[in-house]
């Protein structure tokens, strides 16, 4: 009679999962891990484009758009802030929304990674067609534009679409990517966009520029992870600038 072969050791179950019952088939997937995996997948779906340099203009339409619910826009119109932006706004707006909420204000935002200024302004005008204008409007656009003249034209579209009673803040740009070539041309383009925004500021009494560029210029690598998108310190600083502007 031969020896009985050794039994294979059973794999331990995760600490937060009970062993499967008699009718189960194979290992159960831990519920907590499933929830975390689904949550992580959702975050990656929204932020997948944020880990790379700013997308090209042709690619932005394929990126995930983050837009608040209609009810949020309605509340924010009179008791909060409307905001339009690109990948930086998509990443930073949730924290800003929390800061505004603690002050009794609601943030409604519409953001798509890589979006140039013109299609974002189109979205604003579409919303204004069906809604009265907001008391406060933040435009955080221009990073994905190569021609400052086009940005200047879009600023004028915005200012002619809202009444003088709407306060408009435009966050200026910093772009000098150090993970890809072309950082110097990035910087020149951003400077021209910022100059166009400064000129528009002088023309319109209800428009003010939020000077993000001057803050980043002091310590770019403290605030940015790639020369465009914010690190936690940059998110805190940029949101702080916007918060002080709209509540000051």
Automatic annotation (TrEMBL):
Which superkingdom heads the taxonomic lineage of this protein's source?
Bacteria
Q: Which PROSITE patterns match?
A: TAT
Q: Which InterPro entries match?
A: SGNH_hydro_sf, TAT_signal
Q: Which residues form the signal peptide?
A: none
Annotated region Disordered: the residues are: 1-31
Coiled coil location: none
Compositionally biased spans, kind Basic residues: 22-31
Name listed for the protein in its UniProt record: SGNH hydrolase-type esterase domain-containing protein
Q: What is the protein's species of origin?
A: Pedococcus cremeus
Per the UniProt record, the lineage of the source organism begins with: Bacteria, Bacillati, Actinomycetota, Actinomycetes, Micrococcales
């Amino acid at each position: 009679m031969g020896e009985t072969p050794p039994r294979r050791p059973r794999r331990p179950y995760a600490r937060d999962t009970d062993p499967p019952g008699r009718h189960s088939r194979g290992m159960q997937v831990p519920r907590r891990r499933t929830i975390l995996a689904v949550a992580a997948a959702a975050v990656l779906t929204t932020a997948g484009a944020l880990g790379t340099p700013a997308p090209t203009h042709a690619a932005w339409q394929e990126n995930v758009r983050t837009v608040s619910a209609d009810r949020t826009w309605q509340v924010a119109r009179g008791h909060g802030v409307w905001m339009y932006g690109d990948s930086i706004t998509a990443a930073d707006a949730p924290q800003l929304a929390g800061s505004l909420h603690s002050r009794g204000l609601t943030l409604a935002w519409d953001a798509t990674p890589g979006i140039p200024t013109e299609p974002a302004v189109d979205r604003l005008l579409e919303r204004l067609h069906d809604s009265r204008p907001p008391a406060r409007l933040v435009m955080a656009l221009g990073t994905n534009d190569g021609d400052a003249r086009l940005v200047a034209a879009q600023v004028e579209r915005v200012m002619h679409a809202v009444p003088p009673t709407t306060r408009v803040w435009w966050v200026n740009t910093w772009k000098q990517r150090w993970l890809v070539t072309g950082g110097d041309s990035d910087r020149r383009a951003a400077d021209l966009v910022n100059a166009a925004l400064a000129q528009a500021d002088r023309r319109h009494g209800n428009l003010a520029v939020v000077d993000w560029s001057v803050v980043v210029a002091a310590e770019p690598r403290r605030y940015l992870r790639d020369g465009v998108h914010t690190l936690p310190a940059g998110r805190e600083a940029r949101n702080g600038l916007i918060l002080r502007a709209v509540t000051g």
